[in-house]
Amino acid sequence: MNKHSLSHVIIAASTAAVLSVSTPLFAETNKQTFQAFNTINDVNVEIINALKAVKAKNYAQACSVLNSMYDAPVLSLENSQSRQAKLNVQYLLGQCYAGLGLYKQAQPHFEAVIAQEANQPRPHLDLALTYQYIGEYDKARQQFDAVMAMNNVDDKLRSRVQELSDASPDALQYYVNFVGGAVSDTNINNAPIVDSIIIYDEEFIFNRESRPLESTGLSAGIDASVSKLLSADSYITGNVSFASTGFSDYSRYDNTVIDISGSYNQKFWIGEYSIQPRFASISIGSEGFLDVIGVDAGFTALLDDSFRVNSKLGYQQYGYSDDSERDLSLIKPEFSLNYRYNSDWLIHSSVAFGLGSASNDIYSFTDLELKIGTDYALMDELLLSFSYRLNSTSYDGEIEGFKETRSDTRSTITVGASYNLKNLSDLMKRVTIDFGANIYQNDSNIPLFENERTQIYLLFNVAL
């Protein structure tokens, strides 16, 4: 085999080596003695063996063979055969290192090949993908552009290069989700479940407006999210959501929620930390009810493929439109665990402690929250979910007229299912039908604050 045909074989090797990482990390072996590579023919025989190993994805074996001959004296001779053999060794070393996921080790080998043969498209493409893996996105685009500017690139490869360039990891990613459906609510006004209460030995009968109001309504919303990879180790996200529920017979309890958030995420140690500022505004009827502004700082550790641990510290400022004495500052540390039992079953739990401070002590509180839940894929199209949350809340100030401080125990049960309409998903990113129930109950030492509520929903989600 002459030098030109050998070069053609090596340069045309598939870039699948760069895209597949399934072999354990390779530790470079000791160099063999150079006596085994006395001639270029000896080197070429081993190059062919290394090429076969790369194509079979035996990357560690290929790296071992290539490293054993890398500094052989015969490759340093000033003749075309030696230079070509050295070039082929460089290129295949880049391929086998990339196949092992050692992209920083692969980078100088591809760069060396391009420095000597800049008119070959394949090394440019492999180097572009290597740059992407190590987070050098501007350099990756330069290599893609270099390939697209070449005259010796066939239409099939040009199309593939364009796809890879357009799908760059640092490209702006976004989705928009639309939701709409029906909601049934047994207590839209959060009224106490008691019909009367005794204060100072006198019984007070509540009028109808103070009793729970039951209604059905229509819910609609939109959720838009964008993300941008800044480097191989960091990214930012942004999210804006709008949701509104309107009731047919009690429009004064129609509600609207606007939620805006962003986050910066950075890999660190065995996981990543994040900073997330957030703003939310809630309106009931045609008037503003509550504004929330805050920030969360968190760290997520991936202990293995199935176990994730997350710790978070949050600070929120709540501002009520109708009563400034209820304005609240809340500090809330939280710790959560996610465990994937198998590919179909996810178990999650969390514990959180809240410390709320208001100008009036009757609104200041301490809160302990426990939550456990699970998601189970009953079939490919159907996801079932269940969660239970328990809050124990103790308020600080004694309520005038009751001669005691308020203490509540709230429980929330959520059951739901999401059915994926895969046939429609071919046209859009995701289409699902979500249905389920939220069951709330609040027990209190002061009956005035006891209430219970059940919401049943049927929603249609479309993501573009």
Task: Kindly list the characteristics that best describe this protein.
464 residues; 14-stranded antiparallel barrel; Porin; 46% strand; 10 helices; 25% helix; two-stranded antiparallel ribbon; alpha+beta; Serine Threonine Protein Phosphatase 5, Tetratricopeptide repeat; 2 domains
Give an account of the 3D structure.
By secondary structure, the chain is of the alpha+beta class. The chain folds into two domains: 3-166, Serine Threonine Protein Phosphatase 5, Tetratricopeptide repeat (Alpha Horseshoe); 173-463, Beta Barrel (Porin), CATH 2.40.160. Helix content is 25%, strand content 46%. It has ten helices and 16 strands. A 14-stranded antiparallel barrel has the order 1-4-5-6-7-8-9-10-11-12-13-14-15-16. Helix 8 packs antiparallel against helix 9 (155-166). It starts with a helix and ends with a strand.
